[in-house]
Automatic annotation (TrEMBL):
Gene3D superfamilies: NAD(P)-binding Rossmann-like Domain. InterPro entries: NAD(P)-bd_dom_sf, Sc_DH/Rdtase_CS, SDR_fam. This is NADP-dependent 3-hydroxy acid dehydrogenase YdfG. It holds the Pfam family adh_short. One of its GO terms (cellular component) is membrane. Signal peptide: none annotated.
């Protein structure tokens, strides 16, 4: 079994990769920074020395690099069972105050990367009539927040992408799930003053993804919405 997880050097992506490796999946991961990517690869491999862990340095905001990553995956895996479109960046701000170009930057990483990678990897799913695509959305995909700005716009778009994929791929027996976590204890929240136990651990998101994958093949969880027990921060 083979899985591809983007933005997997830390946080939610790393937790998902560790969980899938532990369950016996070969995993291909990518990230922007060589040092964190190398340490993540080692940590994921330690979960299960028997699986293959393939790591690539990729800027998911660059279409050419996304396509090159997909091409590399095709040389490593003959099929893809799970694709987790997790790569994303969070930059808060009000729409009327954001610096010019921020929307384009966030769209490239948060939406276009998932679009291009999914299109390139579907040939490793459709002929096998098997696969599960998880798109890492957000509570900001469902509710606008003050200071959400372009980030929230991109997360609404990613949820729309996921809904369209679900309709298109059901005839090919490929499941699509939109996962929308609220505040999770990851690097995105560094510098934010909140108690760690006020946020969800990334391992919980990984557990939810594993549960969705483990359902009977005729069952698909279309959307998952998660928030901290005390609500949003």
């Amino acid at each position: 079994m083979n899985a591809v997880i983007t933005g997997a050097s830390k946080g939610i992506g790393k937790a998902i990769a560790e969980k899938l490796a532990q369950e016996g999946f070969n995993v291909a991961i990518c990230a922007r920074h060589a040092d964190t990517l190398a340490s993540a690869k080692a940590a994921i491999q330690a979960k299960n020395p028997a699986v293959t862990v393939h790591a690539e340095l990729v800027d998911m905001g660059d279409k050419a690099q996304v396509l090159a990553f997909a091409a590399k995956i095709k040389t490593v895996f003959s099929s893809v069972d799970i694709l987790v479109n997790n790569a994303g960046i969070f930059i808060p701000g009000a729409i009327h105050q954001e610096e010019d170009g921020l929307l384009e930057k966030l769209m490239a990483v948060n939406v276009y990367s998932a679009y291009h990678l999914t299109r390139e990897l579907l040939p490793l799913m459709i002929p096998h009539r098997n696969g599960h695509i998880f798109n890492m959305c957000s509570t900001a995909s469902h509710k606008a927040y003050p200071n959400g700005g372009s980030y929230s716009i991109t997360k609404y778009a990613l949820l729309g992408f996921s809904k369209n994929l679900r309709e298109e791929l059901q005839a090919h027996n490929i499941r699509v799930t939109a996962v929308s976590p609220g505040p999770t204890l990851t690097a995105s929240w560094e510098g934010f003053e909140a108690a760690p136990d006020r946020m969800m651990p990334p391992e919980d998101i990984a557990s939810v993804i594993w549960s969705a994958w483990s359902m009977a093949k005729q069952t698909v969880i279309e959307e998952i919405l998660l928030r901290p027990m005390l609500g949003d921060i």
